[in-house]
Amino acid sequence: MDNPNCANCIHFYITLDENRPRACRVFNIKGRSLPSIDVKKFTGYHCPVFKEKERKDKPVYKSNKILDTFA
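-> structure tokens emitted (71 positions)
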């Protein structure tokens, strides 16, 4: 099994720190690499708290009435 993709995890977030842009809320890890890579490096195990985000289907708008008035 590969490391889970943190971008698909509910605990992952992007910081405003340019030197440490990726972070995990559970492990309180901030760094340049994905937090799951750091967890694997320090513990030897894959991330035990990975939980995939629920994907919401975005609605498809057939027309935009505001923009249609300028056409």
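Residues 40 and 46 are 5 Å apart (CA to CA).
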